[in-house]
Amino acid sequence: MEAFLHQVLAGLATGSIYASLALSLVMIYQATHLVNFAQGEMAMFATYFAWSLINAGMPYWPAFFLTVIFAFVLGVVIERTIIRPVENAPVLAVVVVFIALLVILNSVTGWIFSYTIKTFPSPFPEEPIFGRFVTSHQGGAIVITMVVLALLFLFFRFTPLGLAMRAAAQNPESARLVGIRVGWMLALGWGLAAAIGAVAGMMVAPIVYLDPNMMGGILLYAFAAALVGGIDNPAGAVFGGFLVGVLENVLGAFVIGNELKLAVALVLIVGVLVVKPSGFFGKVFVTRV
Amino acid sequence: MTRRQLIAIAVLLLVACVLPQVVSDYRVFQFNLVLVYAIALLGLNMLTGYNGQISLGHGAFYAIGAYCAAILMDKYGVPYWATLPVAAAVCLVAGFLFGLPALRLEGLYLALATFALGVSLPSLLKYHHLEKWTGGVQGIVINKPEPPFGLPLSADHWLYYFTLAVAVLMFLLAWNMLRGRIGRALVAIRDQHIAAEAMGVNTAMVKSLAFGVSAMYTGIAGALGAIAIQYVAPDSFNIFLSLVFLIGIVIGGLASISGAIYGALFIQFVPNIADEISKAAPWAIFGVFLLGFVYLMPMGIAGAVRMGLARLQRKAQNK
Amino acid sequence: MAALLEVAKLHAAYGLTRVLHGIDFTMDEGTITTLLGANGAGKTTTLRALCAMVKTQGEIRFAGQRIDHRATEDIVRLGIAHVPDGRGTFVNLSTEENLRLGAYVRKDRDNIDADLERVFGYFPRLKERRAQQAGTLSGGEQQMLAVSRALMLRPRLMLLDEPSFGLAPLIVKELFGILRTVNAKEKVSMLVVEQNAAMALDLADHAYLIETGRVVLSGTADEIKRNDSVRRSYLGY
Question: What is the signed CA dihedral for C115, C119, C122, C126, rounded to 10 degrees?
C-alpha cells in the first residue's frame, strides 16, 4: 500500500511536468491548429540557458526567472520569424519546419554544451518537507506547476490581453474586426507556451539529468496527455498530464516494468487518436466538404 | 520516358557499375549505403510524397527489416540474400496493419502517431522479454557475405553490386507502379481526398496498401543496411533515423523517384563532411537546409533540376 | 465639409475572381446609407473591402485619409466598426466578454463600464444574458450582441452586413428602430448592406443599388423607393 501511494505521488510529480508541457502544446494548438513537435527541445534549450546562468554563479531563483523571460522571448521570435511564413502552408511543410526546429535546437545545444550529461540543481531542500511519501523536489514541482497554472488562469480569465488572446485563437477574423492584432497574439501565445515549457524543463532536469535528448520521452507523454484531455482543451491537458503521470508510474512499477513505460505513451496516443480523437473533454470537429 | 531520360539513366547505371573500380573500399561501402538509403527514401516518398500520409516513424520499418535479416542470419543461419524476401513480407504486413488504424488519422495526427512510434522504438527493441532474439542493448553482430561462386571480387564490392541490383529492381518496380493508375490514385487521394473517394477510388485500400508497400521498401533497405554494416542495435534506430529519412525526401524532392537518389546522397555525405566541424554539426546543417528548402526550394533538388532543365530547353527552343 | 467616406473606382477580387468592377460612392457624417442589391451583387464584398479583408484596387478615404492599404486592425482604430455577415460572435465567450472585446482598442478605459450600461439600455435582453455563453443566444440576440459590440468601440462609422438576415420582421423593426435612435443620439454614421430593400429604405437617408459589382443607381432613400425598376425588382410591387 505504501509503495502504491509512493508511486501515485511520484506520478503526480512527473504528471505536473507532463501537464505543463501538455498545456503548452494545447495553447499553441488552440491558436493555430498546429502541433508543436519542437516544444520539448525549446524547453530543453531554455533549461540549458538556466544551467549556464547557474554555472556562472547566479543564484537559483534569479536564474529561474531570467530563464522564463528568455524562453518567452525565444518563443515570440521563433513564431514571428520561422513559423509565420508557413502558417497557411500545407501540413507537410509545417511539420517539416517543426522538425527542422527540433533538430536545430537539439544540435545547437549539443554543439555549445556538449553531450555529456550534467546535473541540474533543485531549489528544494534535501530533507522531505511534504511528508515522507514524496521528495521535496517532487512536492515542489507540483506546487510550482499549480502556481503557474493559477497565474495563467487568472491572466486569461481576467485581463483584457488574455481575453484578446482567447478571442484571437477562437475567431481570428472577428478578432481583427475589433482591432486585435492577431499575428502578435499568436506570437504571445508561443512566448507563453515556451515559458511554461521552460518551467517544466527546469523542474524535470534535476530528476532525469540535463542532456540534449532529455525531453524526447517527456514530450511523448505530454502528447499523450494533451490527446487524452482533448487537444483543444487546456484544463483537459492538465488533467491528462496528471493522469498520464500516475498511469506511467503505477503501470511501470506494478504491471509492465520500467522498460515499456514509453510504450504506454505510444499506446495511449495511437489509442486515443483512433478511438476518440477528441479526447475526454475536447470538441468533435466536422469537416465541411 | 523520353529518350533523354533513358540516356541519363543509362549513364547513371554505367557510372554506378564502374564506381567500385575507381574509388577506395571505404567509399564503396559509403555508396553501398547510399543505395540502401535510396531504397528507403523511395519507400517513404511513396507514402508521404505521393500519397500525402506523413510518417515520422519510418525508422521502425527499417529496424524491422534490419532485425529480420540479423536474426535470420545469426540465429538460423539463413543466407543473406534469402533474408530480403522475408524482411519484405514481414514489413509489408506490418505496414499494412499500421496503415489500417492510420486510415482514421489525417495529416498532423498521423505525423503525431508515427512520431510516437519513432520515439518509443528503441525502448521497444530493448524489451527484455524479446532479448533472446534481439540481443537486447548489445544487439546482434553478423558476418559479411562472401561473393558467390568464388568470383574475383572483394566482399565489399560484391555486396555493392548485389545492393545495386536490388536497387535497380526496386526502382523499376516503383517507376512502373507510380506512373500508372496506382500513382494517379495515390496523388488523387493526397490532393483531393473526398473527390477521389467520390470518383470511385477505394481510398481505404489504396492508403493501407501504400503504407504496406512503403514499409516493405524501407524494410528491404533495412535488411540491406544491416548486412552492409554487419550490426544491429536498438539505439541506432532512434527517432533521428526516422527524421533523417524525412529530411532526405524533402531535400531530394517529394513525389519524385530521382529525388530518392539525391536525398540519399545528401544524407550519406553531408554528415561525413560536417563531422569534421563537430559532432553536432550535421544535424544543425540538416535543420538549416530543411528550413531553406521549405522556404526557397519546396520541390527539393529534383524539382530544381527539373526546372533548370526546362529552362535550358526553353532557351534552346527560343534560339 | 468633406464626406466621411469616399470610395472611388473600387475593384476587389477573391483570388482570380473579380467581384467589384469599379464602385463609386460617398457618405456624409451623421447619415445612414444603404447598399442594396441581389445575392452575389458585391455588397458584402464592398464592406469587406472597406475593412481590408479582401484585396482591393482603388481609393477609399475616411475623413479625408486614405485607408485602402491599411490593415484591418488599424482601420478599426480609426473608428470604423464592422458588424459582419453572420454576426461574427465569439461563440465560446460570454456575452459580456464579447462586449468588452468591442472596446479593446479604446484608450479611455474608465468609460467602458458606463458604455456597457448604455448598451444594456438599448438591449435589456443582453443584460439578462450577460454571463451566458454567446453561442447559446438566439439569432436575434446575437445580432443585438453584434451591433452592441460595434457600439462599444464608440465608432464614427458602423458597417452593418445584412443585419436583418434570419430575423423575424418584428425583431428587425425593433433593431432598426434602435439603430435610428443611435444614429440620432450618438451621431454614429451607418452603412447598411441589405437584401431586405423595403426595411432598409425606411431606415436609410441615402441608397445605392449595386448589380454585379457596379453601382447602377443612387439617390435619397425616397427617390429610390419611388423608382419604377427598383419597385418592380426589389420591392415587389
Answer: -150
Q: Is C79 on the interface with A (CB under 8 A)?
A: no
Chains near C, with 3+ CB pairs < 8 A? A
Euclidean distance between CA atoms A72 and A187, whole angstroms = 10
Strand pairing report for C157-161 and C189-194:
parallel
Q: How far is the CA of A156 from the CAs of A31, A167, C121, C210, in angstroms?
A: 13, 10, 28, 44
Query: Best of A81, A273, A276, A278 to disrupt the B interface by mutation (most B CBs within 10 Å)?
Result: A273
Distance CA A231, CA A128 (A): 35
Number of structural domains chain C divides into? 1
Q: Do A100 and B290 touch (CB under 8 A)?
A: yes
Nearest to C185, CA basis, from C207, C154, C159:
C154
Task: Provide the residue-wise pLDDT of chain C in tens; the chain has 237 residues.
Answer: 568 999 999 999 888 888 999 999 999 999 999 999 888 888 899 999 999 998 889 999 999 899 988 999 999 999 999 999 888 999 999 999 999 999 999 988 888 999 999 999 999 999 999 999 999 999 889 999 999 999 999 999 999 999 998 888 888 999 999 999 999 998 999 999 988 888 899 999 999 998 888 998 899 988 888 887 777 777 776
Per CB-CB distance under 8 Å, the chain C contacts of A160 are: 100, 104
Per-residue pLDDT reduced to its tens digit, B86-131 = 999 999 999 999 888 888 888 888 999 999 999 988 888 888 778 8
The domain of C84 spans 5-235
ipTM of model over 0.85 = yes
- Give phi and psi for A257, each to the nearest 5: 85, 160
**Closest residue in chain A to residue C82, using alpha carbons only:** A177
Contact call for residues B230 and B142 (beta carbons, < 8 A): yes
Picking from B120, B40, C138, the residue whose alpha carbon sits closest to that of residue A219 is: B120
Calpha distance C72→A177 (Å, rounded): 7
Burial B22-44 (b: 16+ CB within 10 A, else e): eeeeeebbbbbbbbbbbbbbbbb
**Rounded to 5 degrees, what are φ and ψ at C93?**
-100, 165
Residue B98's nearest CA partner among B83, B119, B113, B120 is: B113
- Contact criterion met (CB < 8 Å) for B117 and A259: no
C78 CB near a chain A CB, below 8 Å? no
- How many CB atoms lie under 10 A from the CB of residue B204? 13
CA atoms within 13 A on the CB side of A64: 15
Q: How far apart are CA C70 and CA C61, in angstroms?
A: 11
pTM: 0.88
Query: Residue A163: which of C72, C88, C97 has the nearest Cβ?
Result: C97
Beta-bridge partners for C57: C11
